[in-house]
Amino acid sequence: MDLIEDLETLKFESGIHEEDHSWLYLLGRSHGLMIKACAHATFFCKLLHNLRKSVPEKRTSKCHLTGLCEETQDDDALKVGIIGGGHLGKQLARTLLQLVPVPAENLQISTRRPETLDEFKKLGIQCFYQNTSLVGWANVVFLCCLPSQLPNICVEIQTRLGKDCIVYSFVSAIPVSRLKLLLNHTNILRPQYQCAEDVAHIWGANEEITAALQDPAILQATCPYSPAGGISLNIKWLEGMFYALLNFCTAKDMPHSQVLQHLSELFSSQHLEACKEDKAAPLKFQAQDFVSKIYAKNLSQKRPFPLFDLTTVQLKETPFSQYLSNSTTFQDRFIHLYCDSFGISLTKEQEPEVSTGSPSQ
């Protein structure tokens, strides 16, 4: 409930001079960007969570008595760290907690002012100012800091980053190629958003992100393939996300054939409520969708994929680029999977308009 809905004099807009009203659209744009950013980060964590859950990690240890190798189960859940406790960091934490959901004990926040995060401490989330400790613990680290703070943070954490730790940056002013140099790290995702001159009024300005993502119209507008709402996502993020999933599985030493099977099952129509009547052939990923045909031909069934440089994936053409541009079945299944993951099933009439082009780099 908006307590000031009918109290015009208490609204932000009432204190603005009439000649400045033309700038009010920036409020909607800012809120729309935050909704999209949190939605895409949440979806990515959901996929990681589902992959980890569907294939329990196995670690090999040596028995001191027999000298033989034994497999032991590792049931650790996905560990998520956030660097930055400002408005974006807080909204992201709330969204991940409620919508992935990430358990409180598997979420940590590092910020210069941990005393401002009492709401999260009461939930059992560790809040502190130790960036190096956080990146040494987390599987995924979200950078929600100011551009001016980023160089010092990178110097601080680069030696503690494991090669399989995924760094997800919301710092729009720092390109992914620069981040690679600052962090001496290649496992980096950085979404790029582009705003139209006229941003649609669907985003609002005050609604909580978690509540907004339960609105079918807003959720559809956040879909990576949708240009609705006047804010579009560079589709190279989608490529980077898939290769990040492959890297995540490679770090667990998972055979590539098993990875392809689980990715295909995610997009299987039997798992998507709205696609159960779909008569199209099942979606089945193959190795050559992600690597060259020559490499795929020489890849034995039990070998993992190589570790991919995500910064290169987001800047250059890949085999998956061709796949994305040619497969309309994938686009359709992806839209349904995206909405289903937030608890909203689309009918054919509700399917959002799909953008056929990719925004500029």
Secondary structure blueprint with pairings:
Blueprint: H1 25-54, E1 57-62, E2 69-74, E3 80-83, H2 87-99, E4 107-110, H3 118-121, E5 126-128, H4 131-137, E6 140-143, H5 150-157, E7 166-169, H6 176-183, E8 188-189, E9 193-195, H7 209-212, H8 216-222, E10 231-233, H9 236-251, H10 256-266, H11 293-297, H12 310-315, H13 319-326, H14 328-341
Parallel strand pairs: 3-4, 3-6, 4-5, 6-7, 7-8
Antiparallel strand pairs: 1-2, 9-10
Quick take:
With 361 residues, the protein is of the alpha/beta class. The protein has 14 helices and ten strands. The protein has helices spanning 25-54, 87-99, 118-121, 131-137, 150-157, 176-183, 209-212, 216-222, 236-251, 256-266, 293-297, 310-315, 319-326, 328-341; strands spanning 57-62, 69-74, 80-83, 107-110, 126-128, 140-143, 166-169, 188-189, 193-195, 231-233.
Tell me what the structure shows.
It is a single chain. The chain is α/β, with parallel strands linked by helices. Helices cover about 40% and strands about 10% of the residues. It contains 14 helices and ten strands. The strands form three sheets. It has a six-stranded parallel β-sheet, sandwiched between helices. A two-stranded antiparallel ribbon has the order 1-2. Strand 3, helix 2 (about 85-100) and strand 4 form a beta-alpha-beta unit. This is Pyrroline-5-carboxylate reductase catalytic N-terminal domain-containing protein. InterPro entries: NAD(P)-bd_dom_sf (IPR036291), P5C_Rdtase_cat_N (IPR028939). Belongs to the pyrroline-5-carboxylate reductase family. It comes from Rangifer tarandus platyrhynchus (Svalbard reindeer).
